Amino acid sequence: MSSIPAQSSFSALDAVPLDAIYNLKELFEVDKHEKKVILGFGFYRDNNSKPWVLPTVEKTEEVVNVGASLQADLLSGFSHAFPAPPT
Predict the structure, then answer these.
(1) How far apart are CA 74 and CA 68, in angstroms?
(2) Burial class of residue 43 (count of CB atoms within 10 Å of its CB; 0-12, 13-18, 19+)
(3) Which residues are paired to 51 by β-bridges?
(4) 73 contacts: CB under 8 Å, gap ≥ 6
(5) SUPFAM superfamilies annotated for this entry (predicted)?
(6) Cα distance between the two ends of the chain
(7) Taking the C-alpha atoms of 13, 17, 18 and 19 in order, what is their torsion angle to the nearest 10 degrees?
């Protein structure tokens, strides 16, 4: 019994350009620098497998939290103008 090769539904589609994130991953994999650091998505851990937060992330959290607190103080007299967020 002969088999008829199935034509893929995707064969008529044009190839799309490679996603930038995947391109970075490929570049990282071919980089031979001994001190390269992965700065992509994910969680970072120190040599003891403890979570490590990037210093820039910690600083950003401080700025955002202070900014939100200051904004709440400045706008407290105008609370009637801003509806409460949905719960």
Answers:
(1) 10
(2) exposed
(3) 45
(4) none
(5) PLP-dependent transferases
(6) 64
(7) -100
Tens place of pLDDT for every residue, the chain, 87 residues? 556 566 778 888 888 887 887 888 888 889 999 998 877 667 788 899 888 888 888 888 887 776 666 666 655 666 555 556 666
Amino acid type, 28: F
Structure tokens at 66: 């202070």
Alpha-helical regions (H) of 31-83: 55-75
Residue 10 is classified by DSSP as T
Residue with tokens 């719960």: 87
Q: Give me the sign of the Cα torsion angle 61, 39, 46, 35.
A: negative
**pTM score over 0.90:** no
Residue with tokens 């391109």: 23
